[in-house]
Each structure stands twice: as C-alpha cells, then as structure tokens.
Amino acid sequence: MRFDHYDPEGFYDELFIAKSKPRPEATLLIERFNSFSASEIKRRQQSAQIALMKLGVTFNVYSDGQGTERIMPFDIIPRIVSAQEWKELEQGLKQRIYALNLFLHDIYNEQKILRDSVIPAELIYSATGFLKPCLGLNPPGGIWCHITGTDLVRDRDGRWYVLEDNLRCPSGVSYVLENRRVMKSTFPQLFNTMPIQPVEDYSSHLLETLLNLAPEHLSDPTVVVLSPGIYNSAYFEHSFLAQQMGVQLVEGRDLVVADGYLQMRTTKGLQRVDVIYRRIDDDFIDPQAFRSDSLLGVPGLMEVYRSGRVGLANALGTGVADDKVIYAYVPQIIRYYLGEDPILANVPTYLCWEPQQQSHVLANLDKLVVKAANESGGYGMLIGSQASAAEREAFAEKIKASPRNYIAQPTLCLSRVPTLMEEQIEGCHVDLRPYILYGKNIYVSPGGLTRVALRKGSLVVNSSQGGGSKDTWVVCK
Questions:
Q1: What pLDDT is attached to residue 67?
Q2: Where do the Circularly permuted ATP-grasp type domain residues begin and end (predicted)?
Q3: Strand 311-313 relative to strand 275-278, pairing
Q4: Helix axes 38-55, 173-186, angle to 10 degrees
C-alpha cells in the first residue's frame, strides 16, 4: 500500500504533480507513508477511527432507518495546502466576508444596492432567508456574519472556486479540531518535522469573537451556546464547542425573557445572558417573531435582541446570503461595496428564473448540476451526468414550476486526494470548508474541513450522503 504507482489520472491532485511525483510540500509526508508496511498503515487508520469513536465524534442523519447517530468516517492521508497558496485563499475569503457583511447591513437598512439595481429587488424579497422582522436591525459593530463556513473546490486546472457560502449556522469545525488531535497522536513525528500551521486555537478565537458582541460596560459577560437539543445533526459540535470555550450549553427551555433581559435558569435562580452563539435556524428562535409553533426558541428573544440587550452570532437574517441565487451575484456585490475585483471566483452559474438561461439549462441537463436555492447537505440536487433520463425529466418539471428556486452549474472535475480504499490507495474527490470569524478583525483558521467522497468517482462529499473527512495541513516551506 505504497504511493509508488499512484497516478492522478489527469485530475488535479492535492499531493501529486504527476504519477509518483509528489508536490514539494508533500514530499516528507509521502516518504513517511512509503516507509510503512501495508499492515502498519491499516493499523494506524483503524486506530485513528477508534480514537474518534471514543471521543464521540458523531453526526446525526434524520432519514437513516438504522438509527440517528453515526461516527464521521475519517481518512488518515491528509490534504496539504502550501502556505503561499493559503495566503491567497485567506485574502479572498476576507474580501468576500467583508463584502457580504456590508451587503447584509445594506439590505436590512438603506437598501442602496437594490435602488441601484445591482440585484433585482424581487430576488431579495422572495428569498426564504430574507426576514422582514430584521429590517432596521443594527447589530453590535455592524457585524452580521460572525462565524462563516465557505465551501471551496478546485477544478482540473488547479483554480479555486467558491462553491457556496454558509452564513447561518455553519457546522463542521469540531471535526477539524478533533481530526487534528487524532492525527497528532497517530503521526507525532510528522508534526515534529513538518511546519504545519496549528488549528487548536480556534476555540479561543471563537470566544473572543463572541465576547466582542457584549456591551462594553460589562466586565464579565455571560456567553452561551444555544442548541436545538440532542437530536440535532450537529449536537456533538454544539457540546464540544461549549466545552472548549468553557461556556454553558443551553436549549430554549433553559432561557426566559424577564425584566427586559434574556435570563438563564440555574440552580441559584435566574442569571443574565449577554451573548448567544446560536445553532438554531432563524425561523425557530422566537415563536413570537417567527414560527409560532416552535418549541426550540425563546419567546420574546427578538425584542431583547433588537433593543441591544443581548448579542447573537450569527445575526438573524443572514440566511439571505446563503441563497444560491444570491450567491450568483456575489462578484457584483464585491465590486459594488469594495470597488475591487473578486479574488476568489464563483463557479459559473445559470439562473433558472431568467428565461434565456432556463432554456439553456433545460437543454443541457445531462451536462449540468442543478441545485435548489435553499437546500444543503447534498439534498435537492441533480447531477445530470449521473442521473437517468426520467430523473432529468422530473427535475425539468420542478425548474419550470418554480424557476426562482433553482440554479445550474457545470459539472466540475473536482480535485482529488489519495485515500485509503480497502487494500489500496485511490484518488477521491474533495472540497474544502475554511472557517472565518469576524470580530474586531477577520480571522481565517488555517486549513479547514476537507470533505472527501469515499466512493471512487463520486462527486458528493457530504457526510449525510456517505462522505468522510480528512485533516487539512497548511504547510510552510
């Protein structure tokens, strides 16, 4: 199980330039792996998976008839990004988040971008993530998107593209931190010899970002993580991050609005809460302001938030920027607010609400990937090249019935990373989700979550669709 005959097969490979020729930043890693026997590699892979199981690194799948909780599959061959390349990605991510934050503040306040017809107003008002109760909001520091996970992919030409933005409740960073912990114990010598940038300080950066939302006059503000509860797909992460930051993990039933403030029920009585890291979708967070049938949120929270007596990360209403139709306008958003060209490109996107582009999509469904505007996790998607004629025909009807809710993109030849597949090493497709924190400054955690399609040839990397993860190493020369 060596790399001697590993072949990128015409794809962009993250570790190899060509057959048996590793990239400079991956040379030490490949040499180390080649020094192991096949049985040793399998032993270390099994050991890493067992360690993650003991740590309780799980996710939930609502539609899984075998039970809700699963262990996140993990592969011990890491993805490597050079420090120089990471510097360019970091600049592009900071630019994008800064512009999107200005966009969010604008559309909920002065709406200059709509008056200037950069984006059609009807697209904003018809977006499910656009929340009218948030009109006129002014979050602390004018910051709306405090925690973001931006999905990146690399095509056959090696160029990076932004696949989508996640500004509501992005998940997955706990896997980044736990994957790194397991890799350091599995390959301690590599971490002693290779200049791998650390990720362990993410939780302290996250806490600092949250504390930045508290009123300045408070010397010791109370921060909590608000979770929907144990049946949520990312509950492990909610409890993990609360533990790492040393703050309380709460559910809606633990909180109450009293005397004009948000209060937490404790054994000693009510305690004021100043900042919430919310992992509940907007619609469920306050039954008085949004969904009246929600049992997950806190009645009256919106009024306390609007008055400035509690901070929320992320701000309510950020989901409008996650809409895949709005995503297509992000290059224009960057140019409008910053007067700059985007550093990171979008994937070319067809908007099905425009008749001419819809006609092109319907005529080329066998060559395109079609996505629902507000779905995630690999759901509501058609990969035309892998779908049957009947599936494409059914999707065509969906597009014609609701054109505003669909976009289409060309099928990218996603980059690959060598991955352990039973008795051999195979190239598997990957994406990358870096995590960006926006407090006093914008911080991008080095690396991010590399998600890998664990079936050869598959382009679907989502854990809910059978994907797994890898550690991501940003390596200095």
A1: 47
A2: 78-453
A3: parallel
A4: 140
Residue type at 130 in one-letter notation: F
Q: Which of 251, 264, 245 is CA-nearest to residue 310?
A: 264
Instruction: Summarize the confidence of residues 9-15 as an average pLDDT.
Output: 94
d(CA 211, CA 101): 19
The two beta strands, 147-149 and 435-438, are antiparallel
CB-based contacts of 382, cutoff 8 Å, min separation 6: 365, 369, 370, 391, 392, 395
For the chain, give the number of residues.
Answer: 477
Q: What are phi and psi of 422, to 5 degrees?
A: 55, -110
- From residue 467, how far is each of 281, 420, 429 by CA, in Å? 24, 13, 10
Q: Is 130 left (phi over 0), alpha (psi -120 to 50) or beta?
A: beta
Strand segments, DSSP code E, in 295-366 are: 311-313, 345-346, 350-351
- Element (H or E) spanning 370, and its range? strand 368-372
Q: Locate the DSSP E strands across 83-171.
A: 147-149, 151-154, 160-164
pLDDT in tens, 124-164: 999 999 999 999 999 999 999 999 999 999 999 999 999 99
Strands (E), 191-246: 223-226
Q: How many CB atoms lie within 10 A of CB 446?
A: 23
Percent of the chain whose predicted confidence (pLDDT) is above 70:
95
Longest Cα–Cα distance in the chain: 69
Q: How far apart are CA 343 and CA 255, in angstroms?
A: 42
CB 166 within 8 A of CB 322: yes
- The tokens for 86 are 């990471």
Contacts of 115 (CB under 8 A, 6+ apart): none
Residue 247: both structure tokens together? 């703050």
- Cβ atoms of 409 and 347 within 8 Å: the answer is yes
Q: Give the CATH class of 349-410.
A: alpha beta
Pull the structure tokens for residue 401.
Answer: 């019935």
Helix axes 235-245, 173-186, angle to 10 degrees: 70
Domains of the chain by residue range: 349-410
Cis peptide preceding 314, ω within 30 of 0: yes
- The least confident of 63-67, 386-390, 445-449 is 63-67
* DSSP-derived secondary structure for 28-91: HHHHHHHTS-HHHHHHHHHHHHHHHHHHT-EEE-TT-TT-SEEEPPEEEEEEEEEHHHHHHHHH
DSSP 12: -
- Determine contact, residues 312/139, Cβ cutoff 8 Å: yes
H or E, element range at 270: strand 269-272
| Angle, in degrees to the nearest 10, between helices 202-211 and 173-186 | 150
**φ, ψ dihedrals at 155, nearest 5°:** -90, 180
Amino acid at 129: G
